[in-house]
Structure formats: C-alpha cells, structure tokens
TrEMBL record:
The chain crosses the membrane at residues 12-35. TPR repeats lie at residues 512-545. Residues 227-395 form the Peptidase C45 hydrolase domain. It holds the Pfam family AAT. PROSITE patterns: TPR. This is C45 family peptidase. The keyword Transmembrane helix applies. The keyword Kinase does not apply. Keywords: Membrane, TPR repeat, Transmembrane, Transmembrane helix. It comes from Nannocystis pusilla.
Length: 561
C-alpha cells in the first residue's frame, strides 16, 4: 500500500482483469448450462411392470414378458406386444446390444468425416436448438413408448445428451442426415399389379423395396424384422434396425404397405413429426389406401420424403411426395399398374427446386429411377421378378457397371432388401449381404394374427449365384486390400500403400473408394497425371458423397494448375 503510484495502478488493473475473467467464465458457464438445460428433451415419467427375462438353451431366443428377440440364420426377429410402455421397455432391454453395435459404427463414420472441433461442437449446438421441444409434437402414446425405451437403455446417454434425447434424435435420422453434405441414405421402391392380357381383375400387388445407409464398405448392420402387436391397434411387421420405433419399410395386418425414401428440397426444416413415426401411425391405424393417404396428406412433417403406400386388398399403390411448405400432396400412380420412386421428386412443384435437382442429377437417384423404369416395363412383376430387380447390378440398357457401383440397384452394400406380396400377405426379407443372400419367406397372416397354428409352408428365394462365386470373393478381397492400403498411407508409407491398392485394383477395378485412395497415393508419389485419372474415376463411381466430391474437385483444380 505504500508503494509507488505506478505499481499500485498496475496491481489494481491486474485485479480488475482477473475479476473480469472470472466473472466472464462464471457467466459463460451459467449461460452454457442454461442453454443445455433449455434445449434438453425431458421424458415424462412412465411405470412399467417388471417382467422376467429368460434365455433358451440354444441362446438364440431371449424372452422378456410377452416380447422376445430371436436370431434365425442372419435375421433378427423382434416380437413386441402390449401397451406403449411395455413395448418400449421390452424393445430397449432386448435390443440394446444390437443398437450399441450400430451406434458405434455411426459414431466412427461421423468422427471420420466430421472430426471433433469447433465445427462439430457448433453443429451440435445448432442441432439442439432446432430440435428443442420437438418431442412435444409426438402423440402421448409415442412419447410414453420413447420414454420407456430410453429408460431401458441408459447407455444411450452421453455427456451432452440424455438417453431420452438421444433416442428421440435416432427417430429423426432423416432430418439429421439432411444436414450433412453427403447423401448417406438412399432407397428404391416399386409396386406392380398388372392386369392379365385378357382383361379382368388386377393381379396381386407385388412390392419391391431396398434401403441403403452409407456407413462404410466394411459395415453391415444387423437386419431386424419387428413384429409388433400394439394394444388396440393393427399389428404390423417392420424391417429396420434396433432402436427404430418408426417404420421405413413395413406392412400391417390389413395389407397396408408403406416405405420411405429420404429426399432433399429447398424447404426449411419445420416443427413436426419424424417421417418414420408417421409411417408407423399409418400401419397402426389405416385400414385402406384412402385412409393411409389421408394420414399422409394431413401429417405435420419436419422434412421432405417420398412415401410408397400400397393396399394389398385393393391391389393399388401410390407414391406421395411430401414437403412441409408444399400444399400439393396429390398421390402419383394411384390408378396405374406400375409405380416406382427413388430419392428425388417428380411433381411439377419441385421442377425448380435446386436441392431436388441436385439429388436427381448428381447422386445415383436419377440413374436408378431410369433403370427401374426399364426393368419394370420389360416383363410382368411377380415376387421372383421383384427379387431379380432388387438384385440388378447393370446399368441403363444392360450396360456392365462393375461390382459395387453406386448407380446399380444392388450396389452390394444394401442395408435391407424386401419383397412383399401384399395381397397374399407374404413377405420375403433378404438375409444379406446386400440383396445377394437368401430371401426368407414370412407368413404375415400367421405373424400378424393371433392364431397359434403353424405358419404356412412357403418357399424362400435362394441366394444369388454371385454370392458363392469367384468374382464376389475377389471383390471382398479387394475391399480388404483397400483397408490395408488406407492404413499404410495413414502411416506415411505411400509406396507400400500403392502396392496393396494395385492388388485391389486388379481384383475389383470399379470400387469408387479405391480410386479416391489411389488418387491420394499417386499425388503423394508425384505422379499427378495418374492422380487426376483416379480422382476423375472416383467422381464417376461415387455420386452420393457430395462433400467428398467437392474436395476431390478442389484437388483436381490444384493438379491442373
């Protein structure tokens, strides 16, 4: 206190700075905590009666109360029964391990493409704001089921998200992937009910459906068939994955079929119900095609999507193209014998939509749509023909595309492939990999009824001959060599990486990711002409990864300078 005035001034200034820093830190922490609290989603309290969990002697069937999870060959069957709380609780307890495996694959993908940092943190904060109070748009029964599901899987929670919040976002995967530059979700769907040549009643309504989630060449999610008997509503069968309450592919006991293909438009995200949950509402409540279309036309959707709706009893189907800001939801193909869709919209109101046009022209959607049109008009469609269409690996006019080409209907990495005779009430689900494996027949009248007799004896469709051939073995070995080459390049060994990648190139020359790697390797080694050739080939073979395409185009511009 007795020092020089200058010293006392500096000390006072330091004290003021420290006080300001501490105050700002406390204020920032309080604001951040308040933001997290305000944007967090909170479940309502649910009470679920305890049930006994039992495992059969073979270890392939686990029962929990009235519900069960069974593995049959390469398929998982999740049987759920009861009120919403019991269905959610059983779903979480029975399928937690399968959900965890899928969650790790998704997390690895996000870390690889969108590393941790300010950009990732900012995206998380924006996402929290956009989804604040979003669960309030759900029906009460759906909220209770979601709360019970989250309570049964506490491991779904993390540092910044509760288990309930996280499981709600899992139901909103269509909206979340739309925020990414890359197109991670693609779908193909068609329905056919041709009249015989002599006229008369239409034939059975036959539907083909495949779904692709781009989680990486080495990831094959478990295929899960959910057989759900909700109290007071129509039973339904859904093909998807663990943790999914909604529906992307499904049919109910009345023969009403629904399938969802994600799309993108210029419309902003709005408050509303995630599309998979709207499709589930259709299966639980709709008795006819007209009722299903009414639900879709009135639904408050968050984002856009193309939905195929079929009625097996009426032998009719239609595609509804949904966007929140477009009032016109008139169904397409309702009175036609054939109707199909991929991931872009066809209605006139979307002709000037930039995002829709980009998906049509710069991803595989437009190409797959045209190829579907060729195949569907070649011959009448029965279940065997539908399986063959889903397995098609050729291009327009029968052009050879090469194994793994993203433009093919079967790119060898489909998440699931399904054929349904909605009139006869039979569903065939591909066991994988992709659409190559056996398509297992399921008697829907038995699975969705309450009879205790045995299901009808039905014929499966055998595996594609490619599955056990040398060409497919070469393709799988090429993917292993590609992974080895990536590891070598990451360790700074481009020459060794080139050797391993060259083996992969000889085994499977049409794998897009391989050409991206070879471009990087040749650039490291100084062969710029070879790097350009591989980068250009990558752009041809992988039309869906828009973020990577922009990076590669930037590299090509650098190489041309």
């Amino acid at each position: 206190s007795g020092g020089q005035p200058e010293g006392r001034s500096v000390l006072a200034l330091l004290r003021a700075v420290v006080a300001l820093v501490v105050t700002l830190t406390i204020l920032t922490f309080a604001l951040y905590s308040g933001y997290l609290s305000y944007t967090d989603l909170s479940p309502e309290e649910v009470r679920v009666p305890a049930a006994e969990l039992t495992v059969d002697r073979a270890g392939r069937r686990v029962a929990y109360g009235r519900s069960s999870l069974t593995r049959e060959s390469r398929l998982w069957f999740l049987h759920l029964e009861g009120p919403p709380e019991e269905i959610g609780d059983a779903h979480g307890r029975l399928a937690a391990r399968l959900w965890g495996e899928l969650d790790r694959d998704v997390a690895r993908l996000l870390r690889h493409r969108y590393p941790e940092g300010l950009e990732r943190w900012t995206a998380d904060m924006v996402m929290r704001w956009d989804f604040r109070e979003s669960d309030q748009s759900l029906a009460p029964g759906v909220r209770r089921e979601l709360a019970a599901l989250a309570a049964a899987m506490p491991e779904a929670g993390g540092e910044r998200l509760s288990s309930y919040h996280r499981m709600f976002l899992d139901q909103s995967f269509v909206e979340l992937t739309r925020r990414l530059d890359d197109v991670l979700l693609e779908g193909t769907m068609f329905a056919a009910a041709a009249r015989p040549k002599g006229g008369g009643e239409r034939g059975n309504l036959v539907i083909g459906r495949s779904f692709f989630a781009d989680l990486g060449l080495d990831v094959e999610p478990d295929r899960l068939v959910a057989i759900v008997h909700p109290d007071g509503k129509y039973p339904f069968a859904s093909v998807g994955w663990a943790g999914l309450m909604g529906v992307v592919t499904g049919i109910n006991a009345r023969g009403i079929f629904v399938a969802l293909d994600p799309t993108r438009t210029d419309d902003a995200l709005e408050e509303g119900v995630p599309l998979p949950l709207i499709l589930r509402q259709i299966l639980e409540d709709a008795d006819t095609l007209e009722q299903a279309l009414e639900i879709l036309q009135a639904a408050p959707t968050r984002t856009s999507g193309a939905v195929l709706v079929g009625d097996g009893r009426q032998r009719r189907a239609a595609v509804v193209e949904l966007a929140r800001d477009r009032d016109d939801r008139k169904p397409r193909g309702e009175d036609q014998a054939l109707v199909w869709a991929t991931n872009h919209m066809l209605r006139e109101s979307f002709e000037r939509d930039a995002q829709n046009d980009r998906i049509r022209r710069f991803t595989s959607s437009g190409y797959r749509y045209d190829r579907l049109g060729e195949l569907l008009n070649e011959a009448p469609v029965d279940p065997a023909r539908a399986v063959a269409i889903l397995r098609d690996r050729k291009g327009l006019g029968g052009e050879e595309l090469g194994l793994g080409n993203r433009n093919a209907l079967d790119n060898l990495h489909l998440t699931h492939a399904v054929v349904v005779d909605a009139t006869a009430m039979v569903m065939w689900v591909g066991e994988g990999p992709s659409a190559l494996g056996r398509f297992r027949a399921i008697d829907l009248r038995h699975a969705l009824g309450r009879r205790q007799d045995r299901p009808a004896p039905l014929d499966d469709f055998p595996a594609d001959r490619l599955l056990h051939g040398e060409e497919y073995s070469d393709y799988k070995e090429a993917l292993e060599a590609l992974g080895h080459a990536r590891g070598l390049l990451a360790r700074g060994l481009p020459e060794q990486a080139l050797a391993s990648a060259s083996v992969a190139l000889a085994l499977a020359p049409d794998v897009g990711e391989l050409h991206r790697l070879l471009g990087d390797v040749e650039r490291e080694l100084g062969d710029l002409a070879a790097a350009r050739r591989h980068y250009e080939r990558y752009l041809e073979l992988v039309p869906g990864r828009l973020r990577d395409q922009e990076r590669v185009r930037g590299l090509l511009e650098e190489l041309r300078e």
